[in-house]
């Protein structure tokens, strides 16, 4: 922690004010999804030079972002730790806080504290194929791991991305997926729920696309994130395809307040999602399904 009590890149240290955010400038904003619930990606640069240069995190971790004077929300860090000097998060417009966030412009100042939570065990996954299955804004934490794997390409096998949203307007990161199209050993399978003119990819729900593609479980880790109903069916389908519980990972989004294991708001069973998660293997949480 710096002398004025702001967090460092190692995450929050318990001190005089564990909730004090670092101030960060919005360096860029990308409008990702223009559907009913718009999604924007915000690129943040900490004002404090030390923090900007040394902020480190791992794929799967999250931050608490505040619109000063309005409130605070939890967001997965959607950029990869291989991208230095800034962090990105992608926010869907929902209620009071995210509506205020969506009104912010490049150059405006936000608060950010973190990084918090555990992360995807990317070191343990070296040498494996990785299957990413995302729905809607659930692609945000997956984007961090995907770009991490791309930037450390020799460490991983095939990367297979299955991603869908309700309509083509709700799909995020479309430009990035177009750039990935030419990469070796990387495949992207996009889908939308209902037919649209000029749509060239799959039409149907994400679990149906998964079952159509039937990826092999051999030497493969599957990570899924999206609406709870999608995750439920995707996990059932992965098991039917032969994936073992310990080959399946997800990241949970229980409502949070403190983000640091103090308030008890985010528990499922005896786990605090903010401290014990948000990343879990299916093996760890399958018996808590009713609480999710
Ligand atoms: C670990 C974690 C990671 C997250 N990562 C992201 C992320 O990367 N991008 C992102 O956009 N959001 C993410 N969220 C969700 C995000 O924190 C909330 O959407 C946000 O706090 C909503 O704040 P608000 O003030 O705009 O809405 P509120 O005023 O708090 O809520 C308004 C209404 O919308 C409902 N609501 C709010 N958020 C959601 C939601 N996500 N799903 C369904 N109903 C909702 C509320 O129950 C309420 O009825 C994450 C949450 C967690 C816990
Ligand atoms: S959000 Fe407070 S304990 Fe998890």
Description of the molecule:
By secondary structure, the protein is an alpha/beta fold. The protein contains 8 helices and 15 strands. The chain has helices at residues 49-54, 96-102, 139-151, 174-180, 206-213, 228-240, 273-276, 282-285, and strands spanning 22-33, 39-46, 62-67, 71-76, 87-92, 109-116, 129-135, 159-165, 186-192, 202-203, 220-225, 248-251, 267-268, 271-272, 279-281. The chain has a 7-stranded mixed beta sheet, with helices on both faces. A 6-stranded antiparallel beta sheet has the order 4-3-6-1-2-5. Strand 13 (267-268) and strand 14 form a beta hairpin. Helix 5 runs parallel beside helix 6 (228-240). It is globular. The two termini are 34 Å apart. The structure holds flavin-adenine dinucleotide (FAD) and FE2/S2 (inorganic) cluster. FE2/S2 (inorganic) cluster is lined by residues 256-259, 261-266, 272, 274.
Largest sheet: 7 strands, mixed
What is the overall pLDDT average? 91
Instruction: Kindly report how far apart the N and C termini lie.
Output: 34 Å
Q: What share of residues is helical?
A: 10-25%
Small molecules in complex: flavin-adenine dinucleotide, FE2/S2 (inorganic) cluster
Order of helices and strands: EEHEEEHEEHEHEEHEHEEEHEH
């Amino acid at each position: 922690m710096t002398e004025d009590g702001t967090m460092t890149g190692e995450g929050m240290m318990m001190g005089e004010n564990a909730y004090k955010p670092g101030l960060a400038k919005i360096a860029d904003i990308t409008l990702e999804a223009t559907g009913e619930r718009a999604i924007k990606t915000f690129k943040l640069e900490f004002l404090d030079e030390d923090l900007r240069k040394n902020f480190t995190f791992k794929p799967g971790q999250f931050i608490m972002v505040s619109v000063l004077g309005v409130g605070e929300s939890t967001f997965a860090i959607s950029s990869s730790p291989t991208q230095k000097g800034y962090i990105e998060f992608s926010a869907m417009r929902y209620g009071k806080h995210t509506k205020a966030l969506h009104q912010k412009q490049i150059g405006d100042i936000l608060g950010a504290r973190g990084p918090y939570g555990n992360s995807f065990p990317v070191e343990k996954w070296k040498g494996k194929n990785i299957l990413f299955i995302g729905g809607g804004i659930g692609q945000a934490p997956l984007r961090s791991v995907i770009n991490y794997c791309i930037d450390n390409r020799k460490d991983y096998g095939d990367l297979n991305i299955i991603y869908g949203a309700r309509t083509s307007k709700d799909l995020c990161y479309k430009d990035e997926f177009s750039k990935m199209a030419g990469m070796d050993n990387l495949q992207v399978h996009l889908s939308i729920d209902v037919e649209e003119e000029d749509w060239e990819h799959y039409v149907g729900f994400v679990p149906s696309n998964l079952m159509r593609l039937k990826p092999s479980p051999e030497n493969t880790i599957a990570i899924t994130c999206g609406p709870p109903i999608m995750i439920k069916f995707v996990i059932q389908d992965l098991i039917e395809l032969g994936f073992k519980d310990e080959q399946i990972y997800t990241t949970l989004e229980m409502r949070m307040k403190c983000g640091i294991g103090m308030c008890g708001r985010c528990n499922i069973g005896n786990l605090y999602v903010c401290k014990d998660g948000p990343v879990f293997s299916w093996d760890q949480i399958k018996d808590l399904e009713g609480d999710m």
